[in-house]
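Need tokens for this chain, all 176 residues.
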Amino acid sequence: MNDPFLGLQNVSSFEVTSKDIVDGALSNVKFMSGDLGIEGGQDISPEISWSDAPNTTKSFVVTLYDPDAPTGSGFWHWAVLNISASVSELPQDAGNKSNSKLPSGAIQLPNDARVKKYIGAAPPKGHGVHHYFLTVWALDIDKVENPEDSTPAFLGFNMFGHVLAYGVLNFEVEVK
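Here are the structure tokens for all 176 residues:
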């Protein structure tokens, strides 16, 4: 499995919660990907909130990653950068294509489907359980200098040395 936290040493963690992710599972199929063929999927991003990030945090990044996707490198479903340190939550559907629910100054990158929005979970039928990492990254910089058309993997490269702490919500999805 690809490890999105490999190499992060001496980094603390903080609390991340969601009303839409319960006991390691999505609470509704609407958070899965209709765009990628899941019946009932609406590609609506779940509500997410966080607390107890380091006091020295200057900005946040939110990502959703599936290391089990059959690609050799996993699949980045969502990446939002340059979220102000004063923000502690994203509402449900913050990942919509219009960016209308994102905080001021936040930027959505194209995901691995090359669309600037949230793409929900969509493991291939019969591929087994996929593990998803919805991560909030606390950074020591106000803004990640990252091209707005780049990939979430490149974002990771540009922010890696600036991570103060992170919080993760894990969930699993299997399509039989």
